[in-house]
Amino acid sequence: MTEVTGAPADVLHTLFRSEQGGHEQVVLCQDRASGLKAVIAIHSTALGPALGGTRFYPYASEEEAVADALNLARGMSYKNALAGLDHGGGKAVIIGDPEKIKSEELLLAYGRFVASLGGRYVTACDVGTYVADMDVVARECRWTTGRSPENGGAGDSSVLTAFGVFQGMRASAQHLWGDPTLRGRKVGVAGVGKVGHHLVEHLLEDGAEVVITDVREESVRRILERHPGGRVTAVADTESLIRVEGLDIYAPCALGGALNDDTVPVLTAKVVCGAANNQLQHPGVEKDLADRGILYAPDYVVNAGGVIQVADELHGFDFDRCKQKASKIYDTTLAIFARAKSDGIPPAAAADRIAEQRMAEARLSH
Fold first, then answer.
1. Residues 33, 170: one domain?
2. Is the CB of residue 51 less than 8 Å from the CB of residue 5?
3. What is the Cα–Cα distance from 312 to 157, expressed in whole angstroms?
4. Helix H segments across the chain?
5. Which of 42, 234, 357, 365 is the most buried (most CB within 10 A)?
6. DSSP letter assigned to residue 125
């Protein structure tokens, strides 16, 4: 097992770009025997040990992987701050196609790298990693959450992630329409996998009409077969979904960058509130949404249910306690909308200000 110290020039350029947000530590990991190549990014430990998931993805380049780790770690600092957790932000990415290279040997090697940080970074599941994977990582690293109940963990965190997004939608409805219900509203969900399919259930239970899409046909088919009454319909792709007539809420629940220069101008929805991380492709998109009169519920606020769950696992998991904490996402989202209105700024900027204030106060108290 070796820790890479001589990174390519383009990777180093990505690491030290000022706009990435001043990360405390970035570890480049390589284990030749297992084929592991990974990046662990710690953005901030002002509020406590960095907490964030492990993404397993076939990045086109090392530079792209580093950039994603940096962005995701920064987002976790803000997410954890606004979720009221005593954790900073961190994230890890494993480079490669999990369908092809994931192995027990690779996950154990990754666990050793996380353990070498001595608790500064606590890992969990993300895109491409699952509860069973965290059980393997935990064999080498005690700073692992998202484990199975059989192995002392809380299990799948997507249940509370979806619940939190639903609370964000309720808050959006209250702010925009004066009633915290989705009854009679048309909601488009892009991505009905780990989180999205749970979100669909909440929406249907609340009386919404749901339109779905997913790159995996079997995910769409599973939901349509489960709900054959016509309250769930499907469209071919996200490009079609964002143009659906009469759409009230658009919920991006797949990968990031869903809100960009191409999608924002054609969005028919009045609200964007979804589970995906890093939905704003670049700075300025939040203003474009506001200029079009589209209410944006910041992604890292509403999708915090999962991190609330894995953080609780460190102290002995209690689902009811976690659900109660996740229900407060409703109040936090409303507070952000109120701050945005009073400061005359988009909700994303208001959320950042509140999170930055909490982190700054924590630094001063040290």
1. no
2. no
3. 11
4. 9-16, 62-82, 98-101, 104-115, 131-138, 158-177, 196-205, 217-226, 238-241, 285-291, 299-302, 305-313, 319-327, 329-343, 347-365
5. 42
6. B
**Cα–Cα distance, 56 to 64 (Å, whole number):** 13
pLDDT in tens, 91-135: 999 999 999 999 999 999 999 999 999 999 999 988 899 999 999
Query: Would 364 be classed as within a structural domain?
Result: no
- Structural domain including 96 reads 2-15+22-74+88-151
Domain holding 182: CATH number? Answer: 3.40.50.720
User: What's the pLDDT at 13?
Assistant: 62
Rounded Cα–Cα distance for residues 295 and 359 (Å): 26
Q: Assess whether 119 and 183 both reside in one domain.
A: no
Read off the pLDDT band of 214 (50, 70, 90): very high
Residue 244 CB burial class (10 angstroms; 0-12, 13-18, ≥19): middle
Structure token digits, residue 144: 């692992």
* Predicted confidence (pLDDT) per residue in 341-350, tens digit: 999 999 999 9
Q: Are 256 and 118 members of one domain?
A: no
Indicate if 219 and 144 belong to the same structural domain: no
Residues 109 and 141 in one domain: yes
- Quote the number of domains for the chain: 2
Domain for residue 300, yes or no? Answer: yes
Under DSSP, the state recorded for 271 is: E
Choice between 269 and 127, residue whose per-residue pLDDT is larger = 269
Residue 3 has pLDDT above 50, yes or no: no
Q: Among all chains, which residue has been given the structure tokens 């803000």?
A: 78
For residues 54 and 132, is the Cβ–Cβ distance under 8 A? no
DSSP, res 123: B
Residue 315 lies in a domain: no
**Do 226 and 185 have their domain in common?**
yes
Which of the residues are catalytic? Answer: 91
pLDDT (average), residues 181-198: 96
Same domain, 339 and 238: yes
pTM: predicted TM-score of the whole model, two decimal places: 0.85
- Is 40 a domain residue? yes
